[in-house]
Amino acid sequence: HHQLRDKFSQKYDVDISTQSKQLTLGMKIASLLGALAMAISIFFLFYQFWGYLSTPVQVGILIAAPITLFLLSLHLAQKESSAYFSKIAALVSLACFVLNLSMLGQIFNIAPSPNAFVVWAAFSFLLAYACNARLLVFFGIVSISSFIAMKVGTWSGMYWISFGERPENFFIPSLIIFLLPQLVNQKPFTGFEIIYRIMAMIMVFLPILILSNWGRISYLNWSTDMIEGFYQLIGFALSASAIWLGIKRHWREVINTGNIFFILFLYTKLFDWWWDWMPKYIFFFVMGLSALLALIVFKRLRIS
Questions:
Q1: Which residue has the higher pLDDT, 20 or 120?
Q2: Using 50, 70 and 90 to split pLDDT, how confident is the model at 74?
Q3: Cα 5 versus chain centre, distance
Q4: Distance between CA 62 and CA 234 in Å, rounded?
């Protein structure tokens, strides 16, 4: 048994002790901080000495940097099982690629376009699946969701940069991102399904939470009170449905995210009802009782 554990530890980089788990967590944090620091360093390096370089040299650096780091990340991903160094190279490659499009646009005076987010998303997903990097999946989801939200905003007549002024623009990308793991197999990649589901739920619940309190920024041509009440009901129904779906499918991340937003919807509604006229000690006492009630309900759901 010990020989088998040692074999798995060497071949698949499996943690077989508490100490190794703690060291692995430290290595993950160190690799993340190192990747972010390297990306920020390259960003400031470009801007520090960029004006001293000729245009052909600038274009050559912008093209060569992301390609070189991309090939390096692929090489490191094949050489190491844990892929810590390949993830650092991949994140720095993404930073160089983002700078590539931005700086080339400035050099040749190209008008900004939402299509850049599609290219950034494609490169992020390519690096993420090549290096099994969850952080790059997050950047890819943010980029492609922003592009879809921008397009939805432009279809309604707004300028694409102002897509965030209408939270409902994120409903369509959230649905696509949530269904994507069901259509494309993500099992060979560690934790990718969880990121897709959590990001999709955040992109649908956060706009609903905003609209339930500021209905005037909605597309709906209703009164503000009616819009806020509508989205409050939608928020309660969707968060409760998410908890039920998570229990049925054994998706812990869906259960936890649904719980968080259900409590947020509940507490914001209690605040609207009682904060202005109820004594503060009674208000927080009621909040505590509601938390205890939620614990009892969740406990019964867990047992059943």
A1: 120
A2: confident
A3: 34
A4: 47
Q: How many CB atoms lie within 10 A of CB 157?
A: 6
Q: What would the two tokens of residue 137 be?
A: 């999946």
128 close to 196: Cβ distance less than 8 angstroms: no
Chain-centroid distance, C-alpha 153: 21
Angle (deg, nearest 10), helices 252-274 and 280-303: 150
3 state SS of 279: coil
Per-residue pLDDT, averaged over 247-272, amounts to 87
How far, in Å, CA of 130 to CA of 135, rounded? 13
Residue 161, pLDDT score: 87
- List b or e across 35-68, with b for residues whose CB sees 16 or more CB atoms inside 10 angstroms: beebbeebeeebeeebeeeeeeebbebbeebbee
Q: Are 124 and 94 in contact (CB under 8 A)?
A: yes
User: What is the rounded CA–CA span in Å between residue 40 and residue 88?
Assistant: 12
Assigned token pair, 303? 């047992």
Phi and psi at residue 104, in whole multiples of 5°? -65, -35
At 199-219, the pLDDT tens digits run 999 999 999 999 998 989 999
Distance CA 45, CA 163 (A): 31
Q: How many CB atoms lie within 10 A of CB 118?
A: 16
pLDDT at 157 > cutoff 90: no
What's the average model confidence in pLDDT over 122-144?
A: 91
Query: Rounded to the nearest 10 degrees, how much is the dihedral formed by the CA atoms of 27, 29, 35, 38?
Result: -100
